[in-house]
């Protein structure tokens, strides 16, 4: 992976998924955001060992969105219990 992604800039780290849920995924962290953009633009759709790469930017706000939804649902459930509302 360093050979493929390293062509686009200095890499800080590569983390490869090692559980059944994350198998086939990896996070590549570049030192420079412009290198990350360049790699994303050039490597998305690139064929490696008969598999095509899907390269995406990490978006922290999406990672926390699910947590926010769960928290809001808990608040709604508490209010339903408080006011005796059943659905």
How would you describe this structure to a colleague?
By secondary structure, the protein is an alpha+beta fold. The protein folds into two domains: 1-56, RRM (RNA recognition motif) domain (Alpha-Beta Plaits, 2-Layer Sandwich), CATH 3.30.70; 59-87. Helices cover 45% and strands 17% of the residues. It has three helices and four strands; from the N terminus they run αββαββα. It has helices at residues 2-5, 33-43, 60-83; strands spanning 11-16, 26-30, 47-48, 51-52. Strands 1-2 form a two-stranded antiparallel ribbon. Strands 3-4 form a two-stranded antiparallel sheet. The longest helix is centred in the last third of the chain and has 24 residues, at 60-83. The radius of gyration is 20 Å and the shape is elongated. The mean pLDDT is 87.
Give the helices and strands, then pairings.
Blueprint: H1 2-5, E1 11-16, E2 26-30, H2 33-43, E3 47-48, E4 51-52, H3 60-83
Antiparallel strand pairs: 1-2, 3-4
Pfam family, one: RRM_1
GO molecular function: RNA binding
Domain RRM: 1-60
